[in-house]
């Protein structure tokens, strides 16, 4: 009987040791996985932002349809221009004299492919796919206009839920991560860039993942 009790105690001690180890190691492992996956997702969000800014520079608005944005990259061209100061003489009908006037002349020098300028490696083809192994999902994207100070301003947002990025991780730790409010963390339930309610093209990731604005 004494041997049985000792065996039971050893099992209980081993189980408690496992629980203690897991309570410490679990969050450490979770954070390592989180950082790797967030970094991959941030790369795609940066590409989406780059494509959207190019789209706006040519069309005056952001793209709402992902397929349209990818097609734009493959086909659109930047207009290369040169601004130079110039002057001319204008006759003043009131004073009856010639007056010099300064102006700026914009010359068109040519055109450059958006794809060759920004996405030479062709990585834009997969930028809308969430780059996590075992995940078959795309980034959510929206675009439109908001009114600020009587101005109609183009906005866009691209995002992915933490539920998707960390779908196979501890649910309690995932719930805590979705509630994060910290300058060193990704606040809220999404990893995102841009906004449909504010005039911004920055991302909500901290500087540990690189610059989040441009």
Plain-language structure description:
By secondary structure, this protein is of the alpha+beta class. Helix content is 40%, strand content 27%. α1 packs across α2 (66-75). It is elongated. The model is unreliable at 17-21 (pLDDT under 50).
Distance between the termini: 72 Å
The SS-based structural class is alpha+beta
Rg, alpha carbons: 28 Å
Order of helices and strands: HHEEHEEHHE
The pLDDT mean sits at 84
Give the strand content. Answer: 25-35%
> Looking at the structure, what is the overall shape?
elongated
Detail the topology: elements first, then pairings.
Elements: H1 2-59, H2 66-75, E1 77-92, E2 97-113, H3 114-118, E3 140-148, E4 151-161, H4 162-165, H5 171-178, E5 190-194
Antiparallel strand pairs: 1-2, 3-4, 4-5
Helix pairs in contact: 1-2
What tags apply to this protein structure?
single chain, 214 residues, alpha+beta, 3-stranded antiparallel beta sheet, 5 helices, 5 strands, 40% helix, 27% strand, elongated
Summary, kept brief:
The chain is an alpha+beta fold and 214 residues long. It has five helices and five strands, in the order ααββαββααβ.
